[in-house]
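From the shared-data thread, chain only:
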Amino acid sequence: MSGVRVRLRTTLSTLVATGALIGAGAVANGASAAPASAGAAPAGSVERAAATAAVAPRARAGAACRALRVTVTAGRSTTLRLDCAVRGRGARRYRWVARGRSGTALRALVAKPAHGRLVRFDRRRGTVRYVPARGFVGRDRVRFAVTVGRTVHRGVVTVAVTRATRPGTTTPPAAGGPTPQPPAPEPPAPQPPEQPGAGPADDGLPPVLPPAQPSYASSSWVPTAADTCPQSVHERYSVIGPDGKRYPTWHPPTTVDPATGRTCTFGHEHGRDPAASQIFGWVAAHLAAPGAERYAGVPFGLATETLDTWAADKPGTRIRHEDNPGYKVDYENDVRLLAADGTPLGVSCDYLVSVHQGSHSPDALSNNVHELLYAVRCDDGTELIADTISRFGAPGQYARSCEPATVVTTTDNGYPAGVGSREIPDRACVESTVLVPAGRTTSAWALYERWNATNQLTDADGHAIATYNPGFGVFNPARYANAAGARGIGRTLDLCWEREANGDRFDGALCALATGGGSIAAPYAFDDVRSPFNGTRRDVYLRETTVRNSGGRRLVWTDPYGGNASATPFPGALCQLVATVDNSGRPALQERVFGRNRSNDDEGVHAPN
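Structure, as tokens:
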């Protein structure tokens, strides 16, 4: 069976890379398409890419790229950015030849690393994921080439694989290289002395935290029969939040269990590694507890934990806790802002977001509130770090994804309403867009969910000092709304074996994977690792970040929903960072979509995820 599963996963990667699932440059609901990554190679084709990296006969050699360096802990993997800067002239020490999502530069892998393997090579985005060989500690090298026009530049990334991250150090970004005119850095936080109970734990996992009060979310994950990593290993991927409590945080889908020395799986993924974000250190410093700065990061469940305190003396206020697999991280570095008409504004921003978006249970059909960490820093002075419980529309309802104007009523859970919506497919969508007649192919958008929210940080009078409105999409949810089904949902996987009386059926790439091209005759459990309906195909919409805080305070405390901003903390308050600027005069921005052609799937991942 494992062989079948590997073939299915490889096929999915191939479909993603070629755009068979979603065409390059596709647009949903009027959104502007993000730069496409149609040049992505499937995970299993990296060695073939290296073997075919020969320079075309008419190409000419260019200058060598500046050497890049990155550090990764043994047992973990990291994404390498294959960017290229060459020596400049005069006062310019270096000049960029290719950086980030260049649409004209193509990368090629020249040689495989000696002590690891490469997966998820994307030649246009210029990224590849490096996985060190089990047990290897030392230096490895990844050699690559960047072709711009007919000029080929050669580059190398040196990877230092260390035994464990020492307390007091900060994980570097995924690849080095100069960044032109970066924003002024935050002053370094003082390093406290070693704390009792914290040790380096030289076993390849993150360092052991000092004693800290556990949060509700800290032990909310329990492995299923399909997951091979024990709960104790999962809890090593924890941070200390600003309240001094222990929270779960991002981890790779697989790691090495120090008890066995073998790779184990968690069964879920949390999106992209936030350590590769250019603002990760800045965000982590803001979310650090005094005296525990070295143990900071992205805490999952901070806002919902704070809601417990906020609600304690407010009768009728509902509390909220969310499952661990639903927390998803994404980031985008060096996003160049465009006006609504496409005109460049000359402003570049870095974004880091963490949202809870469950797509396997009936929760989102009625619950409109979900935790959202939103951080952005731009070179025009715009800065915002906001961790709140975001309101995606009203409680007790959702919008039918195939007819967004149609609102379906469910159970009202008593949470406050907000501006936005959760567009979710239901049985009506299944019958109209998923099950199709013979000769037609089910659209990749047929099961697409899109969650939108307009969030504000407001003062005691209700005046907004910051407004932001990201959106989040899922292409392969594990459930759809079905009032006639158990718990009000149906399983998207089961649709692959359904045939209506008129012959209509689900004829698409995902069902081809789920059924092994028709070789699997009967449905299996929705949480089986073979199912491609596991919530791993997602995208993120980045829109406006409006700050009206000129002359205000940079640090304010709000309630968990972002209201009642105060200059001093109060019970149940969260500290938010808001730049003391007013950028409300800049033109309206063009909506941008990222991650559309990127899959977060990995070994062992299954619903619930």
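Residues 28 and 445 are 8 Å apart (CA to CA).
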